[in-house]
Structures are given as C-alpha cells and as structure tokens.
Amino acid sequence: MPIEVTNLSKVFGPVPVLRGIDETFADGEISVLLGASGCGKTTTLRCIAGLERPDAGTIAIGGRTVYRDVPPVFVPVERRRIAMVFQSYAIWPHMTVFQNVSLPLRAAGADRRTIAQKVGEALDLVDLSDLAARSATKLSGGQQQRVALARCIVSGSPVILMDEPLSNLDANLRIAMRAEIRNLQRRLGQMILFVTHDQEEAMSIADTIYLLRDGAVVQKGSPRDFYENPQTRYAAEFLGRANIIERFARADGAAGPQIRLGDLALPSPPDLPEGASLCIRPEKWRAGPPDTAGTLAGRIVETRYVGDRLEFVADTPVGRLSVVEMSDVERRPGDRVGLNVAPRDVKWVR
Amino acid sequence: MTAITAPRVSPRLSAALGLALLLAIVVVLVLAPLIMILLRAVFDSTAGALVPTGRHIVAVLSGAIYWQALASTIAVAAVAAALATLLGTALAWIFVRTTTFGRAVLEQVAQMPIFIPPFVGAVAWALLLAPRVGAVNRIFAMLGIPLELDVYTHGGMAWVMGIYLAPYVMMIVAAALRSIDPSLEEAAQVFGLGRLQTALRITAPLIAPAILSGAVLAFTIAVGLFGTPVVLGWSRQILLLTSRIWIGAQATPPDYGTMAVLSVWLIVLSLAATAAQRYALAGRSYITVTGKGFRPRPVELGHWSALTFALSLLYVILAIAAPLVVLGVAALSAYTWSGHLSLANLATALGSDDVWTTMQTSVVISALAATLAVALGLAIAWVTSRTRLPGRQALEYLVLLPISVPGIAFGVGVMFAWIDLSVAVYGTALIILFAFIGRFTAYAVRSISASLVQLHPELEESARVFGYGPLRTFARITLPLILPSVLASWILLFSFFMTELSMVILLYSEQSRMFSILSFEVWNVGDFSRLAALSLLQTSIGLTLAVALKSIFGQKAV
Description:
The structure holds two protein chains of two kinds. By secondary structure, chain A is an alpha+beta fold. Chain A has two domains: 3-231, Rossmann fold, CATH 3.40.50; 243-349, CATH 2.40.50.140. Helix content of chain A is 25%, strand content 35%. In chain A, helix 2 crosses helix 3 (112-125), helix 2 (97-107) runs parallel beside helix 4 and helix 3 packs across helix 4 (141-155). The two termini of chain A are 35 Å apart. By secondary structure, chain B is mainly α. Helix content of chain B is 73%, strand content 1%. Chain B contains 23 helices and two strands. Chain B has helices at 11-42, 55-61, 64-97, 103-110, 118-129, 135-143, 154-179, 182-190, 195-224, 227-233, 241-250, 256-281, 305-332, 343-351, 353-386, 392-400, 407-419, 429-454, 457-465, 470-499, 504-507, 515-524, 528-555, and strands at residues 43-46, 49-52. Chain B has a two-stranded antiparallel sheet. In chain B, strand 1 (43-46) and strand 2 form a beta hairpin. Residues 1-8 of chain B have low confidence and may be disordered. Chains A and B meet through strand 6 and helix 2 of A and helix 19 and helix 20 of B.
C-alpha cells in the first residue's frame, strides 16, 4: 500500500518541525527518510503511525484517509493497521518471545490455532523458532531485533514503519541486518518506510531516499541518483564525501563555455548557473605526475592508507581537495601531483 | 477504501474530563485542608459565617508557653536530625563501601525501624530508660553502677527520634553512594590522590547533597512527630508544638484558632528546612539518586572491620532488639517488672473484644484508604508522565504539597474543612479516609511516577501500533510492568495507615476508633503491661509488611 502525505505540518511550541511535506511513498519498496537529528524524519514517521498528531495536512494509507485537518479525521493508531519497528525494539519484558510476536494476532482476536501457526511461520522466517518460549528479557540485541521483525510479519500489515531500527546494534550486526531486512521485504513484498540518520545505511537499503532538512524534503531519488547527481551542497555532503569548489574560473573556449581549475580546463557542465559551486567526488580524481601540462597542481598535506585504497588531501589553487586512489603508488606529505578529472564527473550544486 | 472510523467520544474531550475530575478530587482532599488552616488562623467561624480576627495570632504570639513549645520543637528536632544524620551516614558508608561481615543482611535489618511506629518506639524506650523503673536503670542499680539515665527529657526525646529516623538518612545516602561512578574516584587516584584525599575531595562533595537531603527529611519528620513527644514529654510537661495542638483539641470548646496558628508554625518550620536545603544545594546536585547502581570497590578495613561490625550491630540492638525484648518481657508480666512471666498475660491483653474491633476498623479503613490513594496516585502519575494535557503540572504540584506538611497539621486542616459542612463527613470514618488519601497519595504518585519514567514509552506505543486500544494497552502492558511499584506503594501506605496516630487522634469518632487510638488510651491510663502487648502486635504487623515489601521488590525489580 502506498502512503500519501500532503502538506504535512507540525509545530512543537514555537518551532516548526514539519513544513508542509508532500510525498507519496510507493508501494512494494523501501523508502528511506534520511536526515540529521532534528530534521523531522522521526516526527513524519510518528505522524503517519498516529503516535503524533500533525497540525495540518492529510495522511492516507492505501487510499484510506487516516488524518485530515479539515474536516477533522484522526484514526487512532491501533486502527491504522500498520506495523512498526521501534528504535528501542519495544520488546515487552513481561512476555515470552511467543507472546511478544503473537500480540498483533491476539489484538485482532485470532483463534489459538491460527496464532500458533502464524507465529511459528514468522519465527521460522527470522530464525528464532528455538527461542519461542524464552523470556524476552533474555535476548541479545540482534535477537530482539528479529523478534521486532517477526511481530511485523505476523501482523500481516502491508505497511511497515521502521524508526532507526539498527542504531542500537554493533557495526557487523547492523550490516547483516540490513541485508536481512531487504531480503524479507523482497520475499514478502510489503512497503517499508525506514528512518535513519546514517547515509551509508540509507544508500545500502533504500529503493528511494528522501533527504530531509528543517522539516522539508530537499531531494529524493534512488541512491545512485543521489550520489551521481546531488542537487544541493547539503545533499552532496550528506551522502558520501564531496569536494565543493567555489573558486573556479569561467572562460569561453573554441567548443563552448569552459571552466578552469588552475591549469585544468574542462567543458562547462550543462546549464551551470551563476553562483553555483562545482561538486567532484574524491574517487573521481586521477592523480598523475606533477608539472604535467593541463592538470591541476597539488601538494599533498596529509595521507591515509586504508588497506584497499589510499586517501590524500592536497592543497591546490582552488582549495584543499580530498582524493581517493585505488592504486599502489606510495604517496607522502610534501609530494606534488597533477590532478585530472573526466568532464562528466564534474557536477554543479547550489 | 475511504471508510473513516472515528471514536464516538473524542479522545481529547474524555482526557480533558478525566483531568478535570482528578483536579477536583485533589482540590477537595489536598488543597482545601491546607487553605482552611490558613483561614482559621485569621477567621472565627460563628454560626457558619467567617469573621476576621487577629486574636488567635496575638494569643499565640504573646503566650510564653507557645514560644517554649517552638524552642523545644526546634531544639529536639535539630538534635534528633543531627543524630540521625550521623548514624545514617555512618551506616550507609559501612554497608555500601566496606567489607564488613554480614553487611548485606545488616543493611536490610537496619531499614526495619521505619516500620516500627514512633509511638511504639517511644513506649519501648520509656520501659528501657524511665528514671528508677526503666529496665536499663534497674540493671545499673543491680550492678551497683551509680548512673541513672532519664528518657523523659529533651535529650531523651531527641535520642529516641534520632535512632528511629536514622534509616531514612541511611537509605538516601546509601543510594547516593551506590550511584557514584567508581571511575570518578579511580581517576582521582590515578592522578595522585591518596585514599583519604579521594574520600575528602571527591566522594564527600559528591554525596554531600544526599546527606543534606537526609538531614532535612529527618528534621521535617521530627518536627511533625506526635507519638514520641507525647509519650516521653507528658510526665514532665515537656510539650512540643504537636502536643500543644492536641491539647488545643482536648479543650472544651476546642481551641480551633490556636490549633490553626500552631499548625501554620509547623508548616513554616518544615518549609524553612526545605528552603534552606534548596538554597544550599542550588546548582550543586551532581548525582541522580534514581540512576542505575554501580558496584563500587569496597574499602578493605582489615581489623577495623570488627569496629564497623560492632557499630552496626549496636544500632540493630538499640533500634530493634532491645525494644522488642523489653516489650516482650513487659507484655508477659502481670504488671511492669513483676518478675512473673506468663503467656496468659499476653493472651488476656490481646484477647479482649476491644482489641479485635479496633483492629478490624484499622484494617478496613487502612485497606480502603490505601486502595483509593494508590488508584488516585496511579491516575495522576499516568496523566503527568504520559500525556501533554495542560494543567497536569498543577495537578502534580498540588498532590505533592502535603509531603512538607506535618501529619497533625494536615489533620487539623481536614477537620476544619469538614466540621462546619452539613454533609456527614466529620464524625464518621469518611473523614479519616479523606485525611489519609489527601496526605499520603503523594507517596504513591512519587513511587509510581518513578517507575513510569523508567518504562520506555515505545513499549506502550508498539502495543497501540499492533492493535491494542488505550485501555487494553494500560491493562496488559503498562500495569503489569509497573505492578511492583503499585503493590509496594499499597503496602507502604497500608502500613502507615495501620499505625497513624497524629491525624487519627484529632479525627476519630466512636465509629472509627482505630487500633492506634486504643494503644494511646491504654498509655493514657498507664497500663504499661497491656500497652506493651498492643505495641508488640503493632510492631509485628509492621515488620511483616516490611518483609512482604522486601520480597516484592527483591523478586521483581523494575
């Protein structure tokens, strides 16, 4: 089921936290709300869940209006037929794993046989069948995460909301759980609306990313789209690393408008407006020998060897730039290099 | 799919109605008595009309006996608080930070005096230290020691109050000691401070706020005690403010104006202590006592641990063992120190109809009051911690007010609130019920709020998401998770109510004659043997409840 949100607005006291969000989160895929803390991503999720009451706008889940400002509609959370994974997992400590997972069915008044069967299936899916009778307080973080997932599966809801579900897990488990959530979603086909502040997590799990800032969506698109074509400096720097170049020169060449970075002249990226900055990802640079004609001269000030790649920072006439190389070349602070980049890897941002 | 399901009554409206109802209850049961105290200090009530008057204030301010009572109250409470603080802090340190033998058990036992009613403690110490006839003085005489201790003095009162207030200080300081992150002290040692230096420069400043809180708590309780000063002060007419209020109630006609003014004094005294504490602590509260406990590294005492063990044991003997033994011996004697011990005496004392009817009254009133107070406290704690309704802070503020109002003063207020009304509350058991609920709901609110705050709201939210309505969520998720603190509050309040004397003494009627009143009357006629039997019964009820409380919290800590 898709979730449609129009003009969603909310203030906390004098502070607007949501400034009229208009989005449709598509069915059958993983939509990620990404942003720094305080950007309104969790508030958006909680408004959709019905845990928070917006001040204006509408929310429809699968075509059914669950919130509208005028005439007022507010469907209480327990009747929105959604499933949710909480940041703290919210595993009820006074219940066993089985009781935790079966609660959605008990709430819906299912009979005992259905409950046993569906809970069994869900626990199988998340590999927890052996722990059904265990007290919920005796679970590791990863196991609690699986119980939270099983609870969503059992509820049969086509809409699953996830509020920073992986932030309490350690790094390795977090990566494993990403894959697991993606696999489950592919298999069962629900729509997942996923909130995170971690750009790497967003890139690896999302079909579509919605980047929020100050209560509004500033850009949306696929992870690749975001990385290759950031529209704003904020988006470029939030997702991945970026060299933002403000001090570049414009010139008119034989084949049309050009930009100049030191001695490096490149065709201008299309539609480059006044006042825009250039954005070049660190791995797009190619470092060659110094004093090569038509390259951007740089002096290395800092190097970092990270095993599979070498990262260095170089001072250049257009500012300090980060460069990532996959090569085995030895670099030391003080070395000089000549930098080059393919014209298609030069983007502009506002 | 555009079906819109809206609840019949707007949840916002029903929430507002619920809050209004809670506010109304709190205004009637808590605020009205407090206002009536102030009102009756400056108004006379003649034929239902209020006439302003200054004569009560003038009478109290110009009466030397009242200044004497004030001076005695401050002196006794201050010395008692100092003693309690000294003892309580030492015990807390011994139990938390040393390797003293048996410290875990000793700590549990040292908390028990809280469940010995102040009146009973005073009776026991009167039996121990009365001039000439007290057990200790008789032993001294037998051994030819030319020393006579006298409990019927200011010092005697302060001593008895101090040892029974020490556990309050001990619990607060022990919690603070447990909540200090040991790495704070380890860091000081790493950077070169010796053990003593660390204790003085790091540990002491960190727990100083807790010690001060304990001292202030002990002082405010001491100021409001009624049973202890009456039992120990009556024979030589050492009368504290609380005793004077009771005397005012005994007069015919009762001297309501004086009672009101003296109650105001009591309230001012305890507010002043709290204000002084606030001033001293402004911006200096470094640790939260409710936080998670650390396991501090205990101090290895070597042979000094014999001393700390002896000190803790001595406290247990003074506060519990000796009083129980002397009560036991007195209860088994036909008259005090007859030398003939017999169970028959105890059986006669406890077998009378009077004992069982007053005990029944006590149990019924206490159970009902505890149930209602906990229900009200649960509702208020839930509203203040789980909703954003405007007015919820006012509700919490009002219900917590009586914590700094001594019991007897609150009792005076409750009496004033209902005495002139035509509804039949004054003179029935209802008024005691109202007084108990008004004065003590605060404790239920505090304890239940504390456990609600620790309960992650997502536990309730997730139940809502998966289809439970608000009521079902409360019944199946919230309530089971905070049940230990609800039960503990109930037991605590029930045990308070079973032995409450300072409010009941003003408010009881034939219909609501509680067990504590029976004991008081038996003391009044001087039948110490029967009194000891009744005291033993009260103490055993108190200690049984204390053990029940411990087992609930030991079993399932939230």
